[in-house]
Amino acid sequence: MLVQQILKSKADDGVVTLASGATVSEAAALLSSRKIGTIVISNDGKTAEGILSERDIVRELGRRGAGCMTDQIGEVMTTNIVTCALGDPVDDILQQMTDGRFRHIPVVEDGALVGLISIGDVVKAKLSELAMEKDALQGMIMGH
Ligand code: AMP
Predict the structure, then answer these.
(1) With contact defined as beta carbons under 8 Å apart, do 79 and 49 qualify?
(2) pTM
(3) Are 29 and 54 in contact (CB under 8 A)?
(4) How far is the CA of 141 from the centre of ligand 1 (A)?
(5) Ligand 1 probe mutation, 53, 82, 97, 117, most atoms within 8 A of CB
(6) Alpha helices per DSSP H over 65-118
(7) Which of 25, 54, 95, 133 could bond to 69 as cystine, CB 3.0-4.6 Å?
(8) What separation in angstroms does the CA of 2 have from each of 8, 14, 64, 101?
């Protein structure tokens, strides 16, 4: 299974982005209203310059307290981001998420952001693949 198959199956394949000059407070409000765990930081809406996850906000709150809420996202975001391409195998993405201990990977084609895969998307796709394999094997055993 490839990344593009997961993106096609997502009801909403848009990516929520914010510019690096927005504040952590604005990011928290967006995470809350969209019920998501991460925002891709992009100043042109196309290039993924960083990622700000709920975990980054919690880490800063724990370290510095509520004062961090007025910081610009650019000071807090992760800039060394791992991205994937539409043709990448989903198993490789799962391995990267496990090794890197993160739950989101932006999908980038020709330098432009085209989607975002979460660990929830991957688990859902793997479960449906397993269910299809089970049905196929049962069919073979039962002679259907
Ligand atoms: P997450 O589990 O995705 O909420 O993120 C956990 C930590 O990993 C946070 O510090 C994020 O900024 C960072 N992170 C999330 N996604 C990525 C990614 N694709 N590449 C690198 N770091 C990431």
Answers:
(1) yes
(2) 0.90
(3) no
(4) 43
(5) 53
(6) 90-100
(7) 25
(8) 10, 18, 41, 21
Please choose from 78, 101, 123 the residue to mutate so as to test ligand 1's pocket, defined by most ligand atoms within 8 A of CB: 78
Q: The tokens 């055993």 sit on which residue?
A: 141
Phi, psi of 140 (to 5 degrees): -65, -45
* Structural domains of the chain, with CATH: 3-142 (3.10.580.10)
Q: What is the Cα–Cα distance from 1 to 121, expressed in whole angstroms?
A: 12
Nearest atom in ligand 1 to 105's CA: 19
Query: pLDDT tens for residues 76-121?
Result: 999 999 999 999 999 999 999 999 999 999 999 999 999 999 999 9
pLDDT score, position 144: 66
From residue 131, how far is each of 3, 21, 73, 84, 117 by CA, in Å? Answer: 19, 45, 41, 26, 21
